[in-house]
Amino acid sequence: MTHLRDAGLTGNETIETSFGTLRLEHTFPTDESSELLFDQLDAQRAAQAYLWSLPLVGFLTWRERAAEVFGTTRFGDFVVYDSLREKRGIVTANLTTPYVINFTSLADGPLLIDYPAGPTAGGVLDFWQRPVVDLGQTGPDRGDGGGYAVLGPHHDDTPFQGSGRYVVRSQTVNIFIAFHVLTQDPRLMAAAKAGLKLSRAGSGPAPVRFIEGVDREWSATPARGMQY
Questions:
Q1: DSSP code of 51?
Q2: What per-residue confidence (pLDDT) applies to 12?
Q3: What is the SS3 assignment for 195?
Q4: Counting Cβ atoms within 10 Å, is residue 204 exposed (0-12), middle (13-18) or buried (19+)?
Q5: CA-based Rg of the chain, rounded to a whole angstrom?
Q6: What is the pTM of this model?
Q7: Are 214 and 86 in contact (CB under 8 A)?
Q8: Is 195 exposed, middle or buried (0-12, 13-18, 19+ CB in 10 A)?
């Protein structure tokens, strides 16, 4: 029996691999070995498809489970993840500061964000978890607050030229908005929440609702197997 790295791949040969034993007869794999090779090809392609789609499925899972657990039903709903049980459902959360998070669709038009001044850090991501723009101290407003216009893939940016807003474009219609306040001072948290506004282009600001104190166990981790 020959290890795969030492195989000649000619003639009659028995080759040991990490996924089973392959047999060549007159240089060609036997029917059983061909089936084993195709099964391995399927497994590797499935693994690559899983890794490729994990950012998208992860955000989709988070959005759907947050709707179930925290009751996010409206355009302006933000969940405040503060307790250990609330944060434990997020794969990469830390315990030092609350997370304030919203999932929004751009299907009904560009999104306008009036972002508050103060010691915050956040951002907008598309549904592949790619950054669209930072918000707060690491963003173009540098912690001074400001207006943002978030456009979808095919929205015209002409109406926003000269508007004074930071104009950015998402490559997906669904987006993720998140920030946290970089202080334990409850007054600054209250000021950040009071200063945040969302609206559709051409419409007035929608009521922003902060859903907090739910303190339930939950998980945003995607399902496994065929359910994934």
A1: H
A2: 92
A3: helix
A4: exposed
A5: 25
A6: 0.86
A7: yes
A8: middle
Query: Vertex 208, ends 206 and 212: CA angle to 5°?
Result: 160
Residue with the two structure tokens 């790295």: 5
Residue 154 — very low, low, confident or very high, per pLDDT cuts 50/70/90? very high
Q: CB neighbours (10 Å) of residue 35?
A: 11
> If DSSP codes are grouped into helix, strand and coil, which group holds residue 23?
strand
Tens digits of residue pLDDT in 193-206: 999 999 999 999 99
CB-hemisphere CA count at 13 Å for 165?
22
Tokens, residue 130: 């790619």
CA distances from 97 to 85, 100, 189 (A): 14, 10, 10
Residue 70 near residue 217 (C-beta atoms within 8 A): no
Looking at every residue in the chain, the average pLDDT score rounds to 94
Among residues 99, 78, 104, 73, the alpha carbon closest in space to that of 87 is found at: 99
- Residue 207 sits at φ, ψ, to 5 deg, of -60, 130
Say how far apart CA 209 and CA 168 lie, in whole Å.
24
pLDDT tens, residue by residue, 5-42: 878 888 898 989 999 999 999 999 999 999 999 999 99
Tokens 């990490």 belong to 18
